[in-house]
Amino acid sequence: MTIIRPYGDTTGDGMVQLSFTLPVPHDKRAEGAALQLAGKMGMEPALLVHAKPMGDGFTFFVVYGKVAHLVDTEQVQVVERDFPLLSPKEVNAAIRRRLRRRLTVVGACIGTDAHTVGIDAILNLKGVAGEKGLEYYRELSVTNMGAQVSVPDLVETARQQRADAVLVSQVVTQRDAHLQNTRAMSAAFREALPAGKRPLLIVGGPRFDELMAGELGVDRIFGRGTTPREVASYLVHALAGSPA
Ligand code: B12
Q1: Which one of 23, 51, 84, 236 is most buried, counting C-beta atoms within 10 A?
Q2: Is 126 a catalytic residue?
Q3: Which domains does the chain have, with CATH numbers?
């Protein structure tokens, strides 16, 4: 069965919950406006289940209602992992065997973005979700440049370190900053280094569309909930060939 619909109270009843904020103070008209929006979005009937003032002149709403839309799971497009998930031991062994030197990684949070928790989770020894970060891998040499790194500084450091891979984090998506910064970064690497000398370009962050790698000029995008082991396995796959 590839055609499905949302489930709320009974199977296939089409019930969904949606939250949003409107720029109006909380009163009866505001609640009516929220229901009008829900109706226009195809929720019919829609029920207001929560409304809360959010500072001066704003109200936060949760509405619950029925939609008639169907989802065809066969039409879903996602980036599936197309490389084997390796243990740290396997990653180290593959790099030693295939590269015969350490694999060099430079990471940074670029632009004005100061959200370093994500890139630290991937790079720092302590890692995330019970997995150690890339610094734990003996055959990886990791430089973490931290927050608010400019693209020229990143390119310069990557060049100095002869980076095999550059790992960039972008968490803020206001005014598409993550897309613009990523495009600027990939363009700068294309300009600074000839093909074949360019490091593998990887970006990550919770609000990227993983399907946009080609459009943004990077080799791979990692989204929400990525773990260091996935990244290390990808590095081996892309730079040292997956072990047989
Ligand atoms: C902590 C935090 C902060 C801290 C950051 C501290 C720090 N050193 O990082 C502080 C208080 C400084 C902060 C400031 C701001 N923040 Co803030 N912040 C958050 C918060 C609560 C958590 C982010 C976080 O740490 N997540 C945990 C990590 C582990 O998850 P992650 O980043 O998704 O990373 C994972 C994956 O995405 C992936 N990944 C991420 N990067 C990379 C990179 C690579 C290479 C790879 C492979 C994988 C990867 O792997 C990671 C592990 O699984 C979020 C809300 C939220 N709940 O997410 C808001 C949030 C990100 N902040 C937000 C905003 C608006 C701001 C400010 C602009 C607020 C203000 N007006 O001042 C400032 C901006 C500062 C700046 N110049 O960037 C918004 C962004 C909205 C948007 N659309 O862009 C959010 C979503 C809150 C919200 N709902 O409004 N923030």
Answers
A1: 236
A2: yes
A3: 3-73 (3.30.30.60), 88-240 (3.40.50.280)
Cβ(210)–Cβ(78) below 8 Å: yes
pLDDT in tens, the chain (244 residues): 899 999 999 999 999 999 999 999 999 999 999 999 999 999 999 999 999 999 999 999 999 999 999 999 999 999 999 999 999 999 999 999 999 999 999 999 999 999 999 999 999 999 999 999 999 999 999 999 999 999 999 999 999 999 999 999 999 999 999 999 999 999 999 999 999 999 999 999 999 999 999 999 999 999 999 999 999 999 999 998 755 4
Measured in angstroms, how far is the CA atom of residue 153 from the centroid of ligand 1? 22
Q: Which two tokens stand for residue 221?
A: 């995008």
Task: Answer whether 177 contacts ligand 1 (Cβ < 6 A).
Answer: no
174 lines ligand 1 (CB under 6 A): yes
CA of 171 to the centre of ligand 1 (A): 5
The answer, yes or no, to whether any atom of ligand 1 lies below 6 A from the CB of 130, is: no
Cα distance between residue 232 and residue 85, in whole Å: 9
SS3 102: coil
Spot the catalytic one: 40, 52, 89, 126.
126
pTM reported for the whole predicted model: 0.93
